[in-house]
Amino acid sequence: MRAPCDRSATTACGMQLAVPIDVVNPLRRLYCKLTRELAQSERSAFLHTRREARRLGDTPPARALRAVGAHAAASRRRFDALVESQPIGAMLGRRFGELFSVLRNLVFDRILDVERSYRGTLLGFHHVAFCDAWLEERRALVENAERELRWFADLPRRAIHSGLHAAFEGAPE
User: Fold this and answer.
1) Which residues have C-beta within 8 Å of that of residue 172, sequence separation ≥ 6?
2) pTM
């Protein structure tokens, strides 16, 4: 059985096709596009939670992010399997995501204050909202991470430090 996004499929309902299946079926094309986005969102959840948590050190928000990152790591193989039959689309999406991640890590997160960078990471978690069964487990982890925003209110001097300041001083204790 072929993967749902396998462009090499040449038959549909027993009929020979002259064009790839995703050109014939717009719903399949949309499915393929969304699975690539989902896989990229999971890659980002895995990567950005670890980076952000490292910046925050051993703090409640960092621990919440590490829990989300662990969930993303456990799900990663499953999401990668969704796009393995889409070599070009998956590769382009992955490269674009890697470029954005590098820019975010080296530039954007260093000029933003740590609380805003944390919220940006939280915002990225909401890209996967159409996966109800999987989302139930993730929702609890993200809600916990969102509750940890109070840590920034309790320590406002730390919240307004730039990411660049945190990079030079190291992670807070």
Assistant:
1) 56, 57, 59, 158, 166
2) 0.62
